[in-house]
Design goal:
Layout (H helix, E strand, L loop, with lengths): L11 H12 L5 H43 L4 E4 L2 E13 L4 H10 L12 H14 L12 E13 L4
Antiparallel strand pairs: 1-2, 2-3
Length: 163
């Protein structure tokens, strides 16, 4: 062992023992940091899993509440100082396996400014919503079969105004 590094005959345990002996505390800063990194990565993985689970619960609860509000014809209500209200957003995405055709068609129709490496989903949704409004809620023929269009109703949440 030379300077705490492994020589050709060294082993990991001899390195650990040598580092402990030099440190005097029984722990090596190298191994302490490695353990901390492992703990942090494990914690991150655990929290990411929990966030995925919570997001799924949020989506399910949002869906159930929006369905109930629609069934009871409740546009909004206030509870504990928070206003809950129905909101509908038009969303659009390229039909599977038609992105390149969609991009070339958008360009040919004079909407090439929407096309970059990809078409931003929010920009495409806003554009499709505008096209629907301009064409009496009908998708222009040149977009038919290239985009999926659906309305998604969700519940918005904000602080209620004090009365």
């Amino acid at each position: 062992m030379i300077d705490g590094r492994l020589n050709g005959a060294g082993t990991q345990s001899s390195y650990t023992d040598n580092a402990r002996a030099r440190n005097g505390s029984g722990g090596s800063p190298l191994f302490e940091l490695a353990d901390e990194l492992r703990r942090l990565r494990d914690l991150k993985a655990d929290l990411e899993g929990r966030v995925r689970d919570i997001n799924a619960r949020i989506d399910e609860t949002d869906y159930r509440l929006s369905e109930l509000m629609a069934e009871t014809e409740t546009q909004n209500f206030t509870r504990a100082g928070i206003m809950f209200y129905l909101t509908t957003k038009t969303r659009a995405s390229a039909v599977a396996h038609t992105k390149s055709e969609l991009y070339s068609t958008l360009k040919a129709q004079g909407y090439g400014d929407l096309v970059q490496e990809t078409v931003n989903a929010n920009s495409l949704s806003a554009f499709v919503k505008e096209q629907l409004e301009e064409h009496g809620d009908t998708l222009p023929a040149w977009l038919t079969g290239l985009v999926n269009v659906y309305d998604k109703t969700t519940v918005g949440v904000r602080k209620a105004q004090k009365t």
